[in-house]
Amino acid sequence: MRGRRADDASMKDRRRRDGGGGGKFSRSSSSFTFSFALFLLCFALFSVVALSTFRLFGVSFRPVLLPTWRNPTMNAISGEYPLSRIDLRASNSNLSPAGLRIEEAVAFPDSVLLFLKPQSFAAIANLRCIYFLSQSAESHLSLPALSSSSASSCVRCPLPLKADVFNISLSETSLPQLPPILPLRSDHLAYASVLDTRDNTTVIFAKGHNLRPARLSNPNSFECIFGWDFSHPKFSLSSEVLSAAQEIFRCRTPLSILQRRHNSPSIFPFVSVRFKGHGSIPLPSIARPEPLSSPQMPHRPPKAHLMCVCTMLRNQARFLQEWIIYHSRIGVERWFIYDNNSDDDLEQVVQGLFTQWRIMISLHEWPWLKTQEAGFAHCALRARESCKWVGFIDVDEFLYFPSNFKLHDVLRNYSRSPSVAELRTTCHSFGPSGRKTAPPEGVMVGYSCRISPPERHKSIIRPEALNPSLINVVHHFHLKDGMKFVNMDVRVMVINHYKYQVWEVFKEKFHRRVATYVADWQDDENVGSKDRAPGLGTKAVEPSDWANRFCEVNDTGLRNWVLQAFVDPNTGHLPW
């Protein structure tokens, strides 16, 4: 009996060890059930984390489901375009054997700008713009392109009459017609972006939110969006807006975007801005962050240039040589020219200035209308690493030193004061001075009569001392806390502004003003503004006494100095 009990106990022990009679199969089933339950639990936890907002390095990462272009909200913006933008983009993937494609199209009030890839094809001759006015392939219009440029990879097409909604393509006799694309609206668009590596922020320039001039807006009302295609219902990254002013938004840059700068610097996602709130959509965007070259070191090297100049212009090539040669002789070392839709020979003039005079000029395409403030902010960021001081002046404005001071002496003097960040310089406005045709010797020698009281001022700034919001009102910037401006003594430095030239030149101001918050002169708005010519109204009609207007003081100071310092003694000619 005792032996039997021992056998029974031994059998029970074996069953306990084997899992209660199920043997190996029962133990495996139990392990599988436990593993599957653990997998479901992990998957549920991962889903909660992945679909929620979490913070990493101060950036809010939120997978955002973005709406497609074809939905009721976007149709209200797009005007019921006959084809969806995402479908058209997809059709661009298989193009001609040469690989030519239309990357983006933007509709302006009087033209359509097409951005091509690869860039070398933008200068093809005899390009024609093809407009599809409905979904029917037979309903189309063909017009010759207005201009093209290989330097900017752009083709400009005329705006078709009576066609608010259309798709656009290009054709040429030696190339097949490209698949059409839907133009975006230029007044509802994120159009440029800069990656500021000093503080790892992204600056976005965008039209469509209509913020007030010269004032900070509440950044908490917006968020920045990073993604590859905002018309696709896919995940994107959102990040905090740090400042919002005018058309400029500064955002925290997601860590993955910063890493891309080192791993894939040529491939950045699109960036945009949207209002916070349920159902809000980002502005359409063609903007990808452009990394600024900024040395990552505790002690930055000295800046290469003491004085640089930024300007924005349209069709001013004929005046450029005098303006640049003169200022380069008095101490300006580098130029940043923002071309606002010129159709003259600007590129050839710039190339000639470099070839003959070795003048450092960066020519930057900036086609966006009424965006001078945004362009100047963009330029200030680009110039910051290489320029200690940057002047923001127009092509008809010339620095003059009545007491024979030198530009570099003035700048070095104020460089000794770390808190001085802006030199505000008075402008004297010159009139036609009795002339009816443009002076062949140039404006400085040709015009010598001006209005007595000064009009406004222009500024020379330290770019690193600007307020991070980059607010500016064309004539001056907002500065960082603790920084100050200085009003320059007119006996030391002044600007001769050849504003009211002969009518042939002056009437071009009626085309369009470049400043965002300044009314065009054709509009019956702010007629009494100092930006306008007194008494002209809204029509480009020459007054009978135009040649003798705006002449109160005979001021030949700069004229006399130029004739003394610039005339070639052998030929008697000025260098321009």
Kindly list the characteristics that best describe this protein:
576 residues, alpha+beta, 9-stranded mixed sheet, 8-stranded mixed sheet, disordered N terminus, glycosyltransferase, Glycosyltransferase family 92 protein
Report a brief summary of the structure.
Keywords: Glycosyltransferase, Membrane, Transferase, Transmembrane, Transmembrane helix. 23% of the residues lie in helices and 26% in strands.
Task: Characterise this structure.
It is found in: Membrane. The chain is an alpha+beta fold and 576 residues long. The protein has twelve helices and 29 strands. Strand 7 and strand 8 form a beta hairpin. Mean pLDDT is 81; it is low at 1-30 and 45-95.
Oligomer: single chain
Number of strands: 29
Runs in which pLDDT lies below 50 for 5 or more consecutive residues are 1-30, 45-95
Evaluate the radius of gyration: 32 Å
Biased composition (Basic and acidic residues): 1-19
EC number: 2.4.1.-
Region (Disordered): 1-28
GO molecular function, one term: glycosyltransferase activity
